[in-house]
Amino acid sequence: MSSSYVEDPAPGHGSLRPRAYFRSDARSLDLGGDWRFLLSPNIPSAPEGIEYPEFDDSGWTDLPVPAHWQLHGHGKPAYTNVNYPFPVDPPRVPSDNPTGDYRRRFTLDGDWLTQPAVLRFDGIDSCARIWLNGNELGVTKGSRLPSEFEVGPLLRAGENLLVVRVHQWSAASYLEDQDMWWLSGIFRAVTLLARPAGGIPDYWIHADYDHRTGRGTLSVDTDPAVRLSIPELDLHDHPATQPISFAAVDPWSAEEPRLYQGELATDTERVQVRIGFRTVSIEDGQVKVNGRRVFFRGVNRHEHHPDHGRAVPLDTARADVELMKQHNINAVRTSHYPPDPAFLALCDEYGLWVIDECDLETHGFGKFDWDRNPGDDPQWSDAYLDRMRRMVERDKNHPSIILWSLGNEGHTGANFARMAQWTRDRDPGRPIHYEGDLDCAYVDVYSRMYAHTQEVDRIGRGEVDNPRHRELPFLLCEYAHAMGNGPGGLLEYRELFERHPRCQGGFIWEWIDHGIRRHTPDGREYFAYGGDFGETIHDGNFVIDGLLFPDRTPSPGLTELAKIYEPVRITATTDGLRIENHHDHTTLSHLTFHWTLETEGTQVAQGELPVPTLHSGQSIDLPLPELPATQGETWLTIHATLATDTPWAKAGHLIAWGQLPITPATPPVRTGAVRILHAPTELRLGLGGFDPHTGTLTSLGGHRVTGPRVDLWRATTDNDRGEHHPDATAWREAGLHRVQHRVAQIHPGDTELLVRTRVAPPGLAFGLLADYLWTADTDSLRLRLDLAPDGEWPCTLPRLGLRLAIPGAFDRVRWFGGGPGEAYADSRQAARIGLHTATVDELQTPYVFPQENGNRIDVRWAELSTVDGQVLRIEGLPTFDLTARRWTTEALEAARHTTDLTPTDQIHLNLDLAQHGLGTNSCGPGVLPQYRLHPRKAALELVFRI
Ligand code: IPT
Questions:
Q1: Which parts of the chain are coiled coil (predicted)?
Q2: How is domain 566-663 classified at the architecture level of CATH?
Q3: Is the CB of 476 inside a 6 Å radius of any atom of ligand 1?
Q4: Which class is 294-562 in CATH?
């Protein structure tokens, strides 16, 4: 059996012309379920004759379809970002080419034989040869694209046999070098569809909206026999191909995804359709829908499930859409291939702007300066066009799709220009996106990835050379790399998107961590990343860079993003508050505004806040509501919540909020100084016991403690270790992970203990002078820490503060300050001042690759308590940042998976003045200057109470 098709750069063959993805009332048979399966290590060793019914597959195993074989015990997943996992020798692929043979028997009744039928494969990775009842149907390539084969005459009443031979590698693998797991097999649905004679072969609904008149215009490209009904618009059995217009329709937008239920029908077939009227245009250098600028509050979505890989169940796709909507996301780029069609139907229904991206990436050629890159090589031209056609034809009926994308990271070339040309001719109604067309020669929008804020600002101001870059709408198809703890610096991007009308927002990289669920031998769950399956070439945890953890728990990055993307802004003015409507289309009538007044986090009053109608882009200044007089630190919080249930969240769901300070804090009163007591082995000052030789605190209210001691280090984040001049490298070179503490002087006075120290790295001349001044009142112990740089410092600091370990029983925390989640200097918009509680365990953010996490900011006071009610209270004068964990920073830094972290019998606290920002240097800009932590003269004042 010849397998020359495997290394042929041409597209597959034997399939039908691509057409729209739809379901009709014609019969269909889902061929999902258990198939017989055999994996052979290469093509020559795969068995012969599998296509014939008499072939004996009793020695094979069962494998579910849809699924990836590597996630069912056959072969192993492998992760690479840019590199091909095989030698770059296009179109050749390894002779060790794992080949999966699939066989499926199914039974049909005689009615199936009376009409034509097609077999549809929604996705096979990467190349497959297909037979039905011993007859070859053809070959398919293009893993994330459908193929349909005519099968009517081959069907039999009774038992039928479908056989598919899937190769892990093919020439097409060169076109599918996306940053993701290499996973093979029949991973999307397989369906047998009856195609009734005189039925609906294909259709394309063009539903335009004229925002000046409110008119909706409809025309359908389809067979002339097809009739269209839209009962809501009083349209019944209208000849579908005859354009018709309606004086007034409700438009579709991501904010108000109005769909009209309709039906296309012939005498033999009916299709339920959902029509959204909307018109995409480019005017004034902006992408507009229905005449209004779109602000892309976007994310890049790969299809990923921690157990199923890219075989994403429908419920999971729905969960994604609901989570996006709940977090104020309004746009998705389907990076970097067309998703399962079900996802697009959900985008229509729930309302998301979509950039539908073609399954095309050849990133691994970048290493060789794009030498032999398929994008400019005629032998690949048909494969490029074939992929684009199959996407556009499949997805053309979705109102949510407003841009077509030619692919990702494939450089440029004639094959891309050809795809663009074909698409423009076929669908003038949607602009074309491709970031790789740097000069914007054949695209309609200027798109970039990871551009720094200064550059975005220059683009917005038109201070760029290429006239296309000045004229076209601008978007960031990827920005703010959400790897590990981060991204930091989102606010600065939003400000630019709001300042420059042509800068239309962007898409965070990326939606979800692609971790694969695994268990330790003793049954503890963790998520695997590159290298965990023994890959010889891999890119480690670079695949763990999402806003969701692999199990779809939102990470702090998503909470921050929801705040950044909130479509309503509530801020303080000098004597009141301002409400701004940042929606693209809607008023705020779907929201209820409510205020609460809290003193030290406890509610003292609340009420409704009437907000007059505000159209999109409008704002209003309102006076403060009538508030009672308060004593103690008091904040007014305004919440904008959904007034009624929506398909994606219940009434009451929080969309936006703002906080205004009302009454400042009153500093604590001192109850009177306590004198030092000198015992032979201890200095005692109020609640504190000190080592007389080192001046360090050894007990606090009778509890053994370690520290407090100056701490400069944090378990480095992926962003600290990032790609350009990583901060972590500078910190390590400066020895900040191994500083020594020299006690210079211990001065016990009558009522105070002064301990002078110098904190400095071995072998280097610079350091920090750190003076600890201890005093005590009858009910408290006070520490004032004065810090001053000594000598020339070469770098920033990860953190500046104290570490202190206390007994492990103090494992529940209540604090008044920023929360409830973690926050950092450049990722702190989602933290609000209030009273929060959590266990120490709950304070941890389980980053798949462990790193610094869990910092709570602006803490006025925190109480750590035991189960039996003992309390250690720490107050900041005025505030501090708090971290509490059951392991040390060193253990956190050494861990590679969450299951490497084992609790000690202490709680390790960091009480910080500040931490360095997060930035997004794992791929993109580092920490902005205003969030960098430089060594400086500083003081931290804390009060301890038991
Ligand atoms: C960019 C890729 O488009 C994306 O797939 C992902 O790999 C991302 O980087 C990093 O996670 S390309 C890069 C050269 C910026």
A1: none
A2: Sandwich (2.60)
A3: no
A4: alpha beta
